[in-house]
Every structure is written in structure tokens, then in C-alpha cells.
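# nightly structure sweep
# worker-07 picked up a monomer target from the shared queue
# config: single-sequence mode, recycle default, output format = C-alpha cells
# input follows
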Amino acid sequence: MDVNGGELDGRGGELTTVGEADGVVYRLGRDVGPAAVAAVYRSVGWEHLARDPERLGVALRASTEVATAWEGGEVVGVARLLSDRVFHGLILGVAVRSDRQGRGIGTRLVQTLVDLNPEMHYHLWTRTHRYSFYGRLGFRRDDTAMERPAGALAASTRKVKGRGEG
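# output follows
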């Protein structure tokens, strides 16, 4: 169930307001403009996610859910969820515009996503300097995860073929 009591149905065509605090409106929905999200990502130095609005738009629409924070009609924060909706969810792309940080916006965005299904096991990616922030939200460090960076398979294949094994 979502925070409004409705089913998690993969909706996307609209934004649903789920709360308001200190002049910031919190919304759920995948139909958020990629340019607005790119501006947030740029403000925190994530140019690699912001440089191609078309790809960012695909990522937003492919997300299970997107939580956004709005102030004065402008997106000031974003967090995305990829999930099977039952057992596991991955929270990623959590960012609050640099000039709006320290006001609880990131906390509210993450909590909005977790509240969609509090019984689910949530994972997230973050930098080590953010461990304490996410720790306060109930997350703990887990040494069991691995990652495969973009292009890693191609590089690995070239390496193996170069040794005559491929």
C-alpha cells in the first residue's frame, strides 16, 4: 500500500501530494520532468546523472516510485525506488539541492519511500560520508553487496580475450 492507502500499482502519469512541512510539498509519482531533477543533481555535483535528460527521463519512468520535494513550484529534492514491491527495494539517487540541505528534506524523501511498504527490506547506495545520515534512518552498513560498474563486462571480456582464454 502507498501512503494514501492505495495499492502500489506502478502509476506514473501524475504526481500525488503525500505531505507538506515548512513550506516544502512532498509528492510521489514518476511523471516528474527530467530537467527539474537534473537541476537538483547538478547542484550536488552529479553531472553524470544530469547530462542526458532523455536517459534521465527513462530512468525516472522506469523507477517503481519517485519521491520529490517541491518549494515554490520548483523541485528541490528527489529520491528513487526500484522494487519488487514485496521483498526488496533499492533506494537511489537521493539528492537535495545544495542550498536546501540541512532542513530534513532528504530524511522526509527517504521516509516517504520506506513508508510505501515498511515490511520490505530496503537497500541503498551511498558514499561513506553519508553513513551516519542513513544510519539515523535505520539503515546499517552491509558488507555483502557487490557492484558491476557500467562497461565492466566489456573491459573484462577484452582482458580475458587478450590472455587467449576467450
